[in-house]
Amino acid sequence: MSVAQIIAILGSIPLFSLRTFLPAFLTALLLSYPEYFPGMGDVAPLPEDAFLSKDWVLIVLGGLSILEIIGDKSTEIRNLIKGAETYLKPLSFLLINLSMIDEASAEILKEVQWAAIDPLWILLAIGALAVHWLARLRKNFIDFLEDIDEDDNLFIGKISSWVEDSLVLFGFFLLIWTGIVMVVLYAAAIGIILILKKRYHKKLEKQKVECTTCGERNLPFATQCSNCKQELSEIHKIGVLGQRKEALVKDRYEHRLDLLSHKRCPDCGNKLKSNKIQQQCEICGAAAFNSPGVQEYLKMQNKKFYKITGLSFLLGFIPVLGFVISAVLANIYLFSPYRRYISRSSSFFTKLFIKFITFLFFLFGIALGFLAAPAYILMRYYLWKKKFLAQVKN
Ligand SMILES: [Zn+2]
Ligand SMILES: [Zn+2]
Predict the structure, then answer these.
(1) Among 144, 140, 102, which Cα is nearest to 120's?
(2) What is the dihedral of CA 130, 132, 134, 136, to 10 degrees?
(3) Closest ligand to 290 CA?
(4) What does the pLDDT look like over 228-252, one tens digit per residue?
(5) Angle, nearest 10°, between helix axes 75-100 and 22-32?
(6) Ligand 1 center from residue 79 Cα (angstroms)
(7) Could you read off the pLDDT of 331-364 as tens digits, one per residue?
(8) Is the CB of residue 242 less than 8 Å from the CB of residue 336?
(9) Which ligand has the shortest distance to the CA of 222?
(10) In angstroms, rounded to a whole number, what is the distance separating the alpha carbons of residues 207 and 295?
(11) Residue 246: enclosing H or E segment and its boundaries?
(12) Per UniProt, which keywords does this protein have (predicted)?
């Protein structure tokens, strides 16, 4: 086992924790056609009968990489494969690294007694575990981002996905040019992420408010203690991203509506798990739409609808930007509070249709935003409300 081999294995760990196929494809491409990679001209390509340099392997890996890049931009597909990915990634890591072991080492391996296990195997086993562990860390991070921006209104999910794609590409080139630098850089980055994660959890824990009756620690925006149901006196407002605001709540009832619009329990402020209207909080057992009920919820949404539609008319006089701001505001304040209670099973064509309509409205909104923005909001608000009402009847 050479130093270069160790660095290659260590360096590919973070790449495989981000993507299953892209690093595999890049590796296969490099080993088959090193002359296309700047600075790699004098590396001898793999023999033609090697598994990784076969044309069909390259084509399949390339196709899968493209699907992976596209699929990861869709919240639905991301969620669908999220669970399996943490196992697929170490598998991909192992397969690629095993097929990279050159003929010579394979010969040597044959002669090695089983008692003397080649340290390469140990390194690969640890590497696969590390990929699995990092892939899980990444999954938790994505869950956290989705919690903040559930419908990808702020494009946090898409941006993080593009950042990951570029990190894999950048990391791969860094690895083949200056392997050791790449390993050190990525190790440092992972260290920083772990520290930030710890800090974030500490901060959340610190923000909790102790119940004066039973001592239970409650979320800062809870209206009642999740344990003994005692009314809490100091309630913080909740922000757009589900964060604690410094301002304290004056109107409890309005705040309970606000919590519901974030799909949170109106009593204890914890996230509600199901999409159903009729559901109980898993933490404190409170019924979701008991008080306030569905009618009050609709009333609050309608009020917001009039305000934002009026605002969008004014904003529409700013070319392009006015329409974009209106659409983002409407997504966050008008559509999301309904959408959060509707399962995400709408068909591919419905989505395509909505994208197409949005694009048309956007074109129209370049010059005539004061008409296009309110019309867009009106149409989509009506559709989301209709879906929400259907869910209420269920
Ligand atoms: Zn209590
Ligand atoms: Zn609750």
Answers:
(1) 102
(2) -150
(3) 2
(4) 989 988 899 998 878 888 899 999 9
(5) 40
(6) 36
(7) 889 988 998 888 766 556 666 777 777 778 878 7
(8) no
(9) 2
(10) 32
(11) strand 244-248
(12) Membrane, Transmembrane, Transmembrane helix
